[in-house]
Amino acid sequence: MKSAILALAISGASAYVAPQTKVSGSALAATKDEVVALAEANPDFLGQAIGFWDPLGALDTNFWGLGNEGTIGYLRHAEIKHGRVAMAAFLGYLAGSTELVSGPHKILPYRGYEPGLTPPEQWDAIPLYGKLQIIVLVGMLESYGEILDPHYTNGGLPGYYPPIKGKRPELVFNLFDPFGFFEQDSPEKKARGRLAEINNGRLAMLGIFSILSEAGAPGSVPALQGLIPAYDGNVMIPFSGDFSIFS
């Protein structure tokens, strides 16, 4: 497990991204040589300044018996997914810091809502059942993405989420591209979009952790000093105000 965590921590710098040209299904389950080529061809700062960087040898590992190519698919998918979460977290933090979101509301967003709290404090103020609803919804979406065939560890496209529109009467939109803006894009444009997404995700991971670091330890990020309100809690213990398994 520790090896998996360490590998995920450095996977962002290894540029596990889709190529900018149309590829066959077999190429989606990239080999180590293909991933090295993708990393060195990446035009972002890491790709140009560092190229391929895998100090822990993550690409030579075999997670849970998936094999080398399956492990590479897992790591590529993990980086894309973590980048998406980071982009949502970064924008969510900024939006949650505005008066429009954190100010007074005629209709309370949840029971016990208090205006003027920072985003981490707002999370702490949400009742436990409200938090559990969010976790269950995310888990449902995640489980549906995992049953896609072919799986991303077995030749599938890392980062791809299957359509959900029409699967049930209440599902009238897809999770990705709900209004169909990108349906007519060429394969080349979609490949460029995937590359832009992974680069933006890396930047967002740095951004959200910079904000959280400054909030938890004021002055730790000089560029953000005085801009981010201090937070006395611990974002890594999201249910600390509700229960503890150690007490």
Automatic annotation (TrEMBL):
Keywords: Chlorophyll, Chloroplast, Chromophore, Photosynthesis, Plastid, Signal. One of its GO terms (cellular component) is membrane. Chlorophyll a binds at W53, E79, H82, E197, N200, R202. It comes from the Eukaryota. One of its GO terms (biological process) is photosynthesis, light harvesting. It is found in: Plastid, Chloroplast. One of its GO terms (molecular function) is chlorophyll binding. Chlorophyll b binds at R84, L157. InterPro entries: Chloro_AB-bd_pln, Chloroa_b-bind. Pfam families: Chloroa_b-bind. Residues 1-15 form the signal peptide. The light-harvesting complex (LHC) functions as a light receptor, it captures and delivers excitation energy to photosystems with which it is closely associated. Energy is transferred from the carotenoid and chlorophyll C (or B) to chlorophyll A and the photosynthetic reaction centers where it is used to synthesize ATP and reducing power. PANTHER family: CHLOROPHYLL A/B BINDING PROTEIN (PTHR21649). Belongs to the fucoxanthin chlorophyll protein family. This is Uncharacterized protein LHC38. It comes from Aureococcus anophagefferens (Harmful bloom alga).
